[in-house]
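quick q for whoever's on today - can somebody do inverse folding on this one?? i tried earlier but teh output was garbage lol. tokens:
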């Protein structure tokens, strides 16, 4: 038996160790072959699994090779989808074989267990002859019975020899019939499975092209990739990403705008989902191993002795045949109980030492009409840069856009908010300016656990009224809790009164071609 390594995802390991599909070594070789194909599409598939063709097909598909090279974490996702298909297909195959061939298989198992002499005594049983013709060609059945007849002149050993050959022929026929069923079921399930799998791969590859500027952790998009974000104009993201690459000062600015606290260690109690494998009894209808009682039926093979006794007297034979025709013979009732591995999940706790994340961002962006033009573009570029930094450093980022009303957006929840992010980047700034709801929303966010360490950055031309007394008090309370308020003014005509409410004020002079570099230089001095 091969040793299980840590190269596989825990769910894949559980499949290898505990599934009832084929045997453990075959499951291992199946999974190993699939991952080998991910690494090298020309690698030979070395598994005896009846599902080996699916490994060959998936592993050799060009789009699969492309996506696993771009997004390696998708290997586990694709493997798990394939394993789910295998488990479903195996179950459907077993059901199909049972439904179509149970009588023949039962007869085969019965004949395998009985001695030749017992079979010979019952060779005239029509049930045997009829069922045997379902398993192998009737010419072979006829020839076999001819060889058993007294007219053939065969001695006991010769007849017994024909019996053994006939059992081998039965096994070959059973194997061929079940193989035909396997192939039929697999073909019916294979096409829709591969179609859906390849749709997901196409979607995730498309998302990779657009989203990789923000995050490399694309495995989490797998379950949402199909049909996701159909109405988004991804060209907007591409355009901003090009601008971002052409002006690295923007990225430097975004990094400086966040609160860059020293990394600290903290101990926390982590609650996590754990699991263990327990065994539960499961009734298996395919086999008859244990007597559980008596029932009425026409099952000749499992008659109670009292019923067999009816055949011993001429006067009671008619009673026997009447009960047989009405399926009211007293017969033993059987079933087989197997132990099935079941995964049971439960909550567990442990202490964990971890580094505290860098501080979150809360960004308030003025989208009023006075910001139209260069200030609008600068504001969008900085927001875009903050989004990238937040994704890269796994930091929380919260956007509050405001004019006469506010709109909010969690920039770190990109899989659910990308459409709104693109909408913000493509919108035209217009309307009046009411900054007070934005400031109140920002302060309210700092009272939440996820944003309690956040500082607030407001990007605006600050052509707006001063804060009222109630809002000033809220700002002072927040400052007492060590929240910092920063302003980035994209104009030379700001309201000085409102800027006095901020801890630090930075100015971006739209008429100065070196304004961005000067701003970054000043921020570096402050942070140092």
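ok took a stab at it. sequence:
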């Amino acid at each position: 038996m091969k040793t299980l390594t840590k190269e596989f995802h825990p769910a894949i390991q559980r499949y290898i160790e505990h599934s009832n599909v084929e045997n453990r070594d075959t499951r291992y070789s199946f999974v190993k072959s699939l991952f080998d194909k991910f690494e090298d599409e020309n690698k030979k598939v070395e598994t005896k699994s009846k599902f080996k063709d699916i490994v060959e097909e998936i592993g050799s598909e060009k789009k699969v090779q492309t996506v696993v090279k771009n997004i390696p974490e998708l290997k586990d996702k694709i493997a798990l989808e394939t394993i789910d298909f295998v488990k479903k297909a195996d179950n459907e195959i077993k059901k199909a074989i049972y439904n179509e061939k149970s009588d023949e298989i039962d007869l085969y198992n019965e004949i395998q267990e009985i001695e030749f002499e017992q079979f010979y005594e019952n060779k005239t049983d029509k049930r045997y002859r009829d069922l045997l013709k379902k398993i192998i060609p009737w010419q072979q059945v006829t020839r076999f019975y001819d060889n058993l007849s007294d007219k053939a002149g065969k001695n006991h050993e010769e007849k017994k020899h024909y019996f053994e050959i006939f059992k081998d022929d039965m096994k070959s026929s059973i194997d061929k019939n079940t193989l035909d069923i396997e192939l039929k079921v697999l073909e019916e399930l294979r096409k829709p499975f591969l179609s859906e799998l390849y749709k997901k791969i196409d979607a995730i590859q498309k998302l990779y092209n657009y989203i990789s500027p923000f995050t490399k952790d694309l495995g989490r998009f797998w379950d949402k990739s199909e049909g996701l974000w159909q109405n988004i104009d991804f060209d907007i993201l591409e355009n901003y990403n090009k601008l971002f690459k052409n002006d690295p000062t923007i990225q430097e600015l975004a990094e400086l705008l966040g609160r860059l606290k020293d990394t600290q260690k903290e101990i926390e109690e982590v609650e996590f989902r754990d699991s263990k494998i327990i065994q539960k009894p499961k009734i298996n209808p395919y086999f008859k191993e244990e007597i559980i009682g008596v029932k009425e039926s026409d099952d000749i093979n499992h008659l109670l002795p009292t019923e067999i006794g009816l055949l011993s007297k001429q006067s009671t034979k008619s009673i026997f045949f009447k009960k047989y025709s009405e399926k009211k013979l007293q017969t033993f009732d059987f079933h087989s109980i197997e132990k099935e591995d079941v995964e049971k999940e439960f909550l567990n706790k442990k202490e964990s030492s971890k580094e505290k994340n860098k501080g979150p961002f809360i960004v308030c962006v003025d989208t009023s009409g006075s910001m139209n033009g260069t200030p609008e573009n600068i504001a969008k570029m900085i927001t875009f840069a903050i989004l990238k930094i937040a994704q890269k450093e796994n930091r929380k980022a919260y956007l509050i856009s405001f004019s006469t009303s506010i709109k909010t957006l969690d920039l770190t929840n990109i899989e659910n908010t990308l459409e709104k992010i693109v909408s913000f980047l493509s919108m035209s700034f217009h309307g009046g300016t009411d900054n007070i709801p934005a400031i109140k929303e920002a302060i309210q966010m700092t009272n939440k656990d996820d944003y309690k360490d956040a500082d607030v950055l407001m990007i605006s031309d600050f052509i707006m009224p001063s804060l009222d007394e109630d809002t000033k008090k809220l700002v002072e309370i927040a400052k007492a809790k060590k929240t910092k308020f920063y302003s980035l003014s994209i104009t030379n005509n700001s309201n000085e009164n409102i800027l006095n409410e901020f801890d630090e004020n930075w100015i971006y002079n739209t008429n100065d071609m070196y304004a961005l570099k000067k701003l970054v230089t000043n921020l570096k001095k402050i942070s140092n």
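fwiw Residues 1-5, 259-267 have pLDDT under 50 and may be disordered. also DSSP finds 19 helices and nine strands in the chain. so keep that in mind when u check it
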